[in-house]
Amino acid sequence: MILQRTPQPDARVWPGRRLLAFADAVAWPVAWANFVFGLPAHLGLAGQCVLAYCGFAAIQRAHQAVVQNPRYHFTTWRWGRWVVLVLAFGYALKLATLLTA
Fold first, then answer.
1. Do residues 26 and 61 make contact, with C-beta atoms less than 8 angstroms apart?
2. Cys bridge to 10: 37, 60, 70, 89, which one at CB 3.0-4.6 A?
3. How far is 12 from 21, CA to CA, in rounded Å?
C-alpha cells in the first residue's frame, strides 16, 4: 500500500507577504551556513559542499517565496512553534523545581 500526502493548500496572500517570505527564505540557509562556517573544526570539502548547498537552497527558496508566493509556507512559523513550546516546557520545569525546593 502506498500512501501519498496531499499537498498543502495555498496560503493567503497579504500586503508585505512577499518581502517577509523572502527574508524567511534566505535567513534559514544563511543561518545554517553561518553555523557551519563558525565551527572550530576544519571541514574541508564537506564544509564547502554544505556551504554551496546553503547558497543553492537560499536561491531556490527565495525564488519560490517571491515568484510562487501563495505556495510558500514560512519555515520560522513551522519550527518556531516547537521551539517556543520546548522553551516554555523548560521554564515550567525550572519554576517547578524552584517552588519545590
1. yes
2. 70
3. 12
For 15-52, the three-class secondary structure string (H helix, E strand, C coil) is CCHHHHHHHHHHHHHHHHHHHHHCCCCCCHHHHHHHHH
**CB burial class (10 A; 0-12, 13-18, 19+) of residue 61?**
buried
Look at residue 11 and give its three-state secondary structure. Answer: coil
Mean of the per-residue pLDDT values of the chain: 92
Position of cell 527564505? 25
Rg (CA), the chain: 19
Give the chain's length: 101
> What pLDDT score does 34 carry?
94
Contact 58, 26 (CB under 8 A): yes
